[in-house]
Amino acid sequence: MMPFKISSVNVHGGENFKIKMDDIEVWGIDKTKLVDIDINTFRRTIKIVLTVDILNIGGTYDIDARILVLPIRGKGPANITLHKPVMTYVQEWGLKELNGEIYGYTKNSKLAYDIERAEYNFQNLFNGNERLGIETNRLLNENWGVVHSDVSSPVGQAIVSVVDSIIDAIYEVIPYKYLFIHD
């Protein structure tokens, strides 16, 4: 099951941040630790707090962004490593009937997360200009905190799509009556 694979994610953080990643592989999910879980079947909500030492996201990127006031453009392989992320996932689920059984589905979800550090490696930036690519990656990594504050929302959207995929896969195969203890 590792890596966890996602075919494509489009992330838009306003006018200044657009990135599309394809053929994404997420490593580290199997090492995730559950910190807290709160399930409310009446409201149909779940809150999960998770942590992991390292979450590694790789794939092919196409970016057009302005980070640290620098325009960044390119297409190619990318790797984003998040060190010690603590992720709080909140989901509201709905119910649907299928073949006489009731199943859950993700209705709304969001993710907030904080990290100890991040590393970015975007290859082939600026049409393969090696010097600009090296310097841009160096600048991104030296200023990872500022970069993280700029991109945490769009990256969070990508992470929430992974979590939604995992939970929806469970919802699709296990009828709702077997998922939770009901009053």
Task: List its salient traits.
183 residues, Bactericidal permeability-increasing protein, domain 1, 4-stranded antiparallel beta sheet, 9 strands, 26% helix, 52% strand, Haemolymph_juvenile_hormone-bd, To_sf
Secondary structure elements and pairings:
Layout (H helix, E strand, L loop, with lengths): L3 E9 L4 E11 L5 E8 L4 E7 L2 E14 L2 E14 L2 E13 L2 E14 L2 E6 L7 H13 L1 H30 L2 H4 L4
Antiparallel strand pairs: 1-2, 2-5, 3-4, 4-7, 5-6, 6-9, 7-8
Structural overview:
The chain has 183 residues and is α+β, with helices and mostly antiparallel strands. It has one domain: Bactericidal permeability-increasing protein, domain 1 (Super Roll). Helices cover 26% and strands 52% of the residues. The chain contains three helices and nine strands; from the N terminus they run E-E-E-E-E-E-E-E-E-H-H-H. The protein has a five-stranded antiparallel β-sheet, with helices on one face. Strands 3-4-7-8 form a four-stranded antiparallel β-sheet, with helices on one face. The longest helix is centred in the C-terminal third of the chain and has 30 residues. It is elongated, with a radius of gyration of 18 Å. The mean pLDDT is 90.
